[in-house]
Amino acid sequence: MLISLRSIHKTYQMDSVHVPALRGVSLDVAAGEFVTIMGPSGSGKSTLLHILGCLDQPTAGEYYLDGELVSHLPPRKLAQLRNSKIGIVFQSFFMLPRLSALDNVALPLMYSPGRGNGERELALAALAKVHLADRAHHLPRQLSGGQQQRVSLARALVNQPELLLADEPTGNLDRQTGFQIMALLQELHVRQGLTILMVTHDPEMAAFAGRQLIIRDGMIMSDTKNHAPAG
Ligand SMILES: Nc1ncnc2c1ncn2[C@@H]1O[C@H](COP(=O)(O)OP(=O)(O)O)[C@@H](O)[C@H]1O
Ligand SMILES: [Mg+2]
User: Fold this and answer.
1) What is the CATH number of the domain that holds 36?
2) DSSP state of 203
3) Does the pLDDT value for residue 114 go beyond 70?
4) Of all atoms in ligand 1, which is nearest to the CA of residue 14?
């Protein structure tokens, strides 16, 4: 399994109040799966994605990534792991406005070992994967919302991660553009065997994936295979 979660709990502490966000999530995801996570607002979807992305740590439970127990690693190790194995995209595109698409995509390479070896080529290759090689020198404001999201997808892919995580990546886009992003994720999954976990509240977007989880009140309520993905 690429991902194994065992009884993950996450409780946020707000002053004297405990907010339970995840209440015993266990999950196995094999390499090469495309999984969506749906559920009502506040059900713990983003919390789960943050833990999967090593942006946050569980209060209890174990997270194995590629067989390695990562739930108890110190923050510096987690950051290394995230940089080498995981790409993440969010609802907001988080582009630096004064940098070209190419330079935005190259940003994560600044933190990689072996810096100074063909960043430009790697960034261009990542832009080509999202079919935007011809927009490399455009600034974010010269790109449409859908194109900006594709640039952030390229940035997430530039380190050639095994795992792509996406938190409502179509949430800021109109439907048609959302479908284009879904088709692109599906293509990356099918052609390159990329493992994808994506949060969405839209069943029509979730229909592009081969497996659908529903989470409610911090627990997985259903886990179903989709034998005929859309697209
Ligand atoms: N940083 C935080 N501090 C305190 N409570 C939080 C924090 N982040 C999320 N929560 C709470 O945890 C629960 C789950 O939130 P979240 O994972 O963001 O849900 P979703 O993404 O499904 O909308 C909610 O009750 C939310 O208010
Ligand atoms: Mg959320």
Assistant:
1) 3.40.50.300
2) H
3) no
4) 4
